[in-house]
Known about the structure:
By secondary structure, the chain is mainly alpha-helical. 78% of the residues lie in helices and 0% in strands. It contains three helices and no strands. The protein has helices spanning 3-19, 22-40, 46-79.
Amino acid sequence: xxxxxxxxxxxxxxxxxxxxxxxxxxRNNLRALLQQGFEHFDLATREQLDLQTELLSxxxxxxxxxxxxxxxxxxxxxxxxxxxxxxxxx
Length: 90
C-alpha cells in the first residue's frame, strides 16, 4: 500500500470514528458558539478579511491607473493650445 494512501485511509477511519462520538457534537457546538461570538462582537473572519484586502488592493491599483491617465491627459492638454472660442455654427 502506498504511504500516501495509507495516511488518507487512516485519516478517514479516525474521522469516521470521531464522527460517531460526542466529540463531533462538541466540535459542532463549539463552532456554532464561536460563530455567534463573531456576530455578537462584530468580528470579521479570516475569509472576510482576505476578501476585503483583495478588494482594497484592486481599488488601489485602479486608482493609480486612473491618476496616471489623468496626468497624461493634463500633460497633453498643456502642449496643444485650446481655441479661445468655439467657431460659430452658421
